[in-house]
Amino acid sequence: QVQLVESGGDLVQPGGSLRLSCVGSGNIFRNSAIAWYRQAPGKQRELVAGITSGGSTDYADSVKGRFTISRDNAKNTVYLQMNSLKPEDTAVYYCNVNRKGAGWSRPFGSWGQGTQVTVSS
Fold it and tell me: Which residues of the chain are modeled with pLDDT < 50?
């Protein structure tokens, strides 16, 4: 199974910032479209942001203008810079792999532990 490792989650106050990291490996990572998803207790997992192998990005409307997804293929890492965090951003954040041209709704990697982001005063 394709596995990625998420890190960077923390407890932050509203308005704060966090940078999440998603680390994969080698060729599979570089040639894949990677997306961040999040899931809050009692809610469905939802797309946060995605980035293609060519660097094109998509964002959920709820995070547009606040979050930025990027990738550094030399480090086999995809980042999610989260600014102006709101309590509604509280969730476990996961990254996963998507096929080229398939959009973000059908990730095919395994779901890992994720990283907890808690936004609270």
Answer: none
Cα 35 from Cα 18, distance rounded (Å) = 17
> Quick one: CA dihedral 46, 71, 102, 57, positive or negative?
positive
What pLDDT is recorded for position 100?
87
First to last CA, the chain: 38
Show the tokens assigned to 104: 């973000």
- How much is the pLDDT for 27? 74
All residues at 6 or more sequence positions from 54 whose CB lies less than 8 Å from its CB, including other chains:
none
Alpha helices (H) along the chain = 26-30
E strand segments, the chain: 5-7, 11-12, 18-23, 33-39, 46-51, 57-59, 67-72, 77-82, 91-98, 115-119
> Do residues 66 and 92 make contact, with C-beta atoms less than 8 angstroms apart?
no
Sign of the alpha-carbon dihedral angle for 96, 35, 88, 86: positive
pLDDT digits (tens, 9 = 90+) for 99-112: 988 999 999 998 99
